[in-house]
Amino acid sequence: KAGTDLGAYYAKDDYYGGDAASLSDDELSLDSDHGAGAGSGAEADYSGLESRILSRDATRGASGNDGSERPADTVTGGADATVEEPITGSTRGKGQWFGKGAEALGLSGSVDPVVLNRLIEGLLPNGVELGIRGGKTAEKEHVGGWDLTFSAPKSVSVLAELTGSSALFRAHHQAVKEAVNWLEEEAATIRRAGFLGKKTEQTGNLVVALFQHDTSREQDPQLHTHALVMNATEREDGKWRSVYSKPIFEHKMAAGNVYRAALAQRMQALGFDTERTHADGRFEITAVPESVVEVF
Fold first, then answer.
1. FRET pair for 11, CA 20 to 30 Å: which of 115, 180, 218, 222?
2. Which of 15-29, 38-52, 75-89, 150-164 has the highest mean pLDDT?
3. CA dihedral sign of residues 200, 202, 203, 204
4. Residues 241-270: what's their mean pLDDT?
């Protein structure tokens, strides 16, 4: 909704796990200090997970919405993506720009809430203003964008929360980026006037702000990313136009499948056995007991 400070909205509920834009697929192995390296994930000792998680949940306290810190948690951040740092207030709510459209606008690194809110209003960093006005005094009509949420399976969320392994967070983030890249190629379009009426034209670029959270509002393990797709895309001739949203909605389920397939591959590369649980590609890590998954 126009006028909503989404930068503050996404910052208040949880935190963004470090400089994820710099994360790569180079180190797809669990951190050695967590006792399960690549190739050994399925054999690792997960006995007592339920009691360990419930004990941790009881001691961590309700945090996130009130801005308090959670000293027991760690996030990946800094120049060395394998180093874990305690969560501080400065790391909360930091999103990352992503997409070919973001690159075209010179947007990279952490999301500036001011820039994000201006984009939602249809005000681009290059000076272009998008939207429709009915007259000189009429208010501008402009849909700010769409929130696509990619959520990891509960077993992955539990492991990520319990171990704090950078490899698990990295695997999720890379899978999200793969899905968004696919969506750019398949569903980034505009509508423009042609000789025989309106026609659809693919642009292949989107402006996306990625906000990664590791818990639900109830503070249960729930690793997920909000991909805020801005309503702006660049035509081949360099002109910026509003996105034709119908293809995005038509492809959203398929994008979820791309994410899950990419994540499952990365879990297997880490040494975990996975089991498909639904026809749409949802899966769980077999090493995590079902009783643990059901707790949350």
1. 180
2. 150-164
3. positive
4. 94
Of 230, 262, 21, 219, the closest CA to residue 118 belongs to: 230
**Sign of the alpha-carbon torsion through 130, 242, 111, 4:** positive
Please give the C-alpha separations between residue 274 and each of 11, 77, 162, in angstroms, as whole numbers.
32, 28, 18
Q: Which residues, other chains included, contact 201 with Cβ-Cβ below 8 Å and sequence gap of 6+? A: 189, 190, 191, 192, 235, 236
8 Å CB contact between 99 and 205: yes
What integer pLDDT is reported at residue 93 of this predicted model? 53
Q: Answer left, alpha or beta for residue 105, where phi above 0 means left and psi between -120 and 50 means alpha.
A: alpha
- Tally Cβ neighbours within 10 Å of residue 224: 18
Taking alpha carbons only, the member of 57, 61, 66 closest to residue 11 is: 66
Residues in contact with 158: Cβ distance below 8 Å, sequence separation at least 6, in sequence order: 49, 53, 221, 288, 292, 293, 296
pTM: 0.72
CA distances from 57 to 100, 131, 264, 296 (A): 39, 46, 27, 11
Structure tokens at 71: 């000293």
- The strand pairing partners of 147, in sequence order, are 228
With both helix axes pointing from N to C terminus, report the angle between 166-187 and 246-269 in degrees, rounded to the nearest 10.
150
Q: Cα separations (Å) of 236 from 131, 189, 201, 244?
A: 20, 11, 9, 15
Q: Give which of 167, 153, 149 is closest to 229, Cα–Cα.
A: 149
Using CA atoms, how far apart are residues 140 and 230, in angstroms rounded to an integer? Answer: 17
Residue 113 backbone dihedrals phi, psi, to 5 degrees: -55, -35
pLDDT tens-digit readout, 205-233: 999 999 999 888 888 888 999 999 999 99
In this predicted structure, what is the pLDDT of residue 287? 87
Write out pLDDT tens, residues 166-181.
Answer: 999 999 999 999 999 9
